[in-house]
What does this fold into?
Amino acid sequence: MTQLDRSVSPISQDFPTFIFPEFTEQLLSNGIKVYVVEDSTQPLVSISLTIKSGSTFEPIDGLARFAARLFTRGTTTRTATQIADEIDSLGASISSSAGWDATQTCIQCLAEFTDTATAVLADCFLNPTFDVTEIDRLRKQSLAQVHQLSADPNYLASTAFYREIFLGHPYSHRRHGSSESYARITREDCSRWYEHLQTQERFFIVAGNITTQGAVELLEKYFGNSTYSPKSLPTIPMLPNITSQHVVAIDKPESLQTTLVIGYNTIEATHPDYPVLILANSIFGGMFSSRINELLREKHGFTYGARSTIDDRKLASTVMVITSVGAEATGQSVRIILEELERMKTEPVSIDEFQTAKQYLLGSFARDLETPHDVSNLLQTIELYDFPKNYYTDYFNTIVGLSYDELYTAQKQYFQTSSIVISAAGAIENLQKQLAEFGIVTVIELDSK
It folds into this structure.
């Protein structure tokens, strides 16, 4: 009988195939773009309306998200309670929020209730009242959330990191708001922000058990008469040019752990080498079997988990290592991370690492297309970031065709430790002592503001 060596991870040499699901692109009579992904295998329909403006352009921290949440909390014809009751009676869900680069209102329902659900969606987006009672209620909820976040070391370290790496750029501000900003947001602020959104480019994505014709007719019925004349977004500053190692720390008194966020800005998702960088990052820290997780978790036992990710925004992509380690291991953990970044730059990975990462990434594509809602998310990214329509197909094929030597070329080009920000949340005395070897430690105070 053949013995299976369980100490060796099995690596398949076969790659999955990737075919991006079919979709159609239409226009309403007023010019709003509509994408439709037909799927009759499930009795569900999702409709999302995305506006190409978000927190990047908000004049008050948290305003974009705050105002968007009010869309579903009262219109000229429905109170917040009536909206909630009607959605519940349909067995549907509705949500509205804002990210850095977009504001989205979305509804999901059974196909048989699509017309009624779309009527609610249209009412929420076209006729919000920004009722003062609802504003006060949401203000209290938002203040409570800020208070909760202020105790979260991951939030503290990430906020300090973004503040430093995007210093002087809109991406540096606090998208989730602060006690100070929520205390001063008024109904007039929400109305002015809503007026701004009405002047920006928008698009629909409809996915599920509905035909293209049916989707267009439905949206024409409820949105076709709305005014649509998009204007250009305001000009924003260039990203800061960080040329040295920066160290920032934020105090979490008496903490037994240190939360670390370490990273640097890199090429944007539109760059031809971006898929290659994603593959290299998978080896470095993007998979559970990655190098930094193996070192910090398995070998040294400093953490329950360490990972690296690439935070994509329309105007920036940032490589970020995120982990929480025992306070006594803070300095050694940073050294290990920086050493591995340097090793990625100066040494080729092993063939096994290369093949494993390829299989991991290519397999992830199949998981990203399991439902019409998943496809909608990819389409939203394509339209929001102005990617070519074959972006994900080319991305997949780039990974399939990538050679071992090409990966090393990218490693040497896109891994670095010089222009890097090291952010830490923990007991400040410990941080100042253990991080001093990496540069001058700047202490950041977020307090309630």
Q: What stands out?
A: The chain is about 45% helix and 20% strand. The first strand starts at residue 24 and ends at 27. The longest helix spans residues 132-149. The two ends are 67 Å apart (CA to CA).
